[in-house]
Amino acid sequence: MTSFEEAETEETVTCLHMTFYHPCQDDKMMFRCLNFCKREQVRADEMAKFGRDSNICHYNLMDTRVSRIQFSLQFYRKLNSSEFCFEIKNMSKKTKLIVDQTELGYLNKIDLPWKCIICFGDYQILAEIQEGESVDYFETHLHLAEVPILQERCLPSLQPIPENGISSSLFPSQGKSPIEIDENES
According to the UniProt entry, which residue ranges have a biased composition of type Polar residues (predicted)? Predict the structure, then answer.
């Protein structure tokens, strides 16, 4: 047998991709302590903490309006399953944390959806989980957004077009809209 054949099988690693946005990031540089575009390993038994206090939090946000610990993420495996998940907990007494449309008060926690938007104050974070198999650690991969995440992800609401033609509100200058007629109709 060759050394290639005897080598251990490589495990894939769960990776949490997080894209950060704040409207004043260019002026205030609140993300200057985050390590963007490089994956970082976090041990599975450690909690990933985000906040202002660099003695407690590995992911520091340089903003006095951010709590010492804003929120934490715990990596875990579901009971009787091989599926890995993250649990997000609001650690701020003053600021509510919104995960998609769910509002979390102090010490409230929920499972992090595989793709969601986390908001607090003017902060917007797009979180996406890339599944893996490793039980020893997970990775974080941080990105910086140039435009608001909520604006980028929301499509303008379009009025439905009726089956019998085009909505007249789309062409207000035209008096009559074209009408589609089924070939079986007379």
Answer: 166-176
